[in-house]
Write a structure and sequence with these properties.
Two copies of one chain form a homodimer. By secondary structure, chain A is mainly α. In chain A, about 70% of the residues lie in helices and about 0% in strands. Chain A has a domain of about 130 residues: Tetracycline Repressor, domain 2, CATH 1.10.357. Chain A contains nine helices and no strands. Chain A is elongated, with a radius of gyration of 18 Å. The termini of chain A are far apart. The structure holds a DNA duplex (30 and 30 nucleotides).
DNA sequence: CTTGATATATACAGATCTGTCTGTCTATGC
DNA sequence: GCATAGACAGACAGATCTGTATATATCAAG
């Protein structure tokens, strides 16, 4: 049974993600989740803290989903890295997270609304991206790359470019373009 | 002499860009620009229309600046495309637009806050990106690329990836990473 | 059955936001 | 000089937002 705290986080994630953080009011989250206002402030203290809890949840949810999709490629690290771009395409098409659709990357969006790098929400966004780069680095090392850290940064940059392109230009094919570029980057491996 | 309308657009651009669209109130723009509220509504009718005017101004300003930076590379289209990534680095460091600093791409940010692709602000953002891709396509054709449209999409994707990485992770070196990747893409040309 | 923790409903305070209304001031052109 | 257009100043309406206060209901454990 899901707790009220989880109800709030899941509802807030959906509304913040699709409608923006600043533009989405507390009252809307309360109405859609059916939770009382006092319960929200008991659990989170402020809207800002709810935003941080939502971003942490999204980080777990997204990285968990992506790892699962990449694992479908089997044991080869190179195949897993390429599979990531197929996962992006599923995400861009709106099929990855039922009920959420695709409204770009929640962390890029958060960094846009909370532009100061010192803002806690911006920092969570940065950490999320860093964690993914670390995961890519391990796979690149496992695949025998000469410079795993640099290669992982390049893969990550392709991923960010695909996300921004898919969202701003409403162009989900960006995943395929990025994948083709990644294939050339990884051609020497395995 | 700058008109009141320009004063409003320039001040709103700075505040929207650094503080976000929804989070920045009309009153702040009026206070900082020294313009009366009635004057704003005389010129723009609503905050939404001011936002659109700001995005159009930013489109002209940014593409004009970028074209100027690229032109510094001389007549070679390949050199101009590579020069673009040097321009990105200047932008990321905050030196491109005095008084604005670097808060990511105003159009990626706008698409984040106005996520619906049918929203006028989102559409202006998409058009801005499309115009840049068209410019890249012309340069790729001029450089003798076999498939100028595809190559331009790849260059554009590297650019978007660099912007997102530089902002979210506070990592201006992303420009150099993207440039190195672009050099490999363009190696066969000229 | 009582106690304590948790949640609910509802009202409210205080701030802020967009947009309007009413005057007044000032400059420019005739 | 005078008329007209544009901008300023400042109050105000109405909505909305975050956060608080109060009083009530539910439910499980001892």
């Amino acid at each position: 049974m899901r707790s009220r705290r989880d109800d709030l986080i899941e509802t807030a994630l959906k509304l913040f993600y699709t409608g923006g953080f600043n533009a989405t009011g507390i009252d809307k989250i309360l109405a859609e989740s059916g939770v009382a206002k006092m319960t929200l402030y008991k659990h989170f203290g402020s809207k800002d803290e709810l935003i941080l809890a939502v971003l942490k949840r999204r980080d777990e949810q997204f990285r968990g989903w992506l790892s699962g999709e990449m694992a479908k490629a089997g044991p080869s690290p190179k195949a897993q890295l390429l599979q990531m771009f197929d996962a992006l395409e599923i995400w861009f098409s709106g099929k990855a997270f039922p009920g959420l659709g695709f409204s770009g990357c929640a962390f890029i969006n958060a960094a846009g609304e909370f532009s100061d790098p010192a803002h806690p929400a911006h920092q969570i966004a940065a950490e999320h991206k860093e964690m993914l780069v670390r995961q890519f680095t391990e796979l690149c090392a496992e695949a025998g790359a000469a410079d795993p850290a640099s290669l992982a940064e390049e893969i990550a940059l392709l991923k960010e470019g695909a996300i921004a392109t898919a969202h701003v230009r409403n162009k989900p094919e960006a995943a395929k373009i990025a994948k083709a570029m990644a294939e050339r980057l990884l051609a020497d491996l395995d």
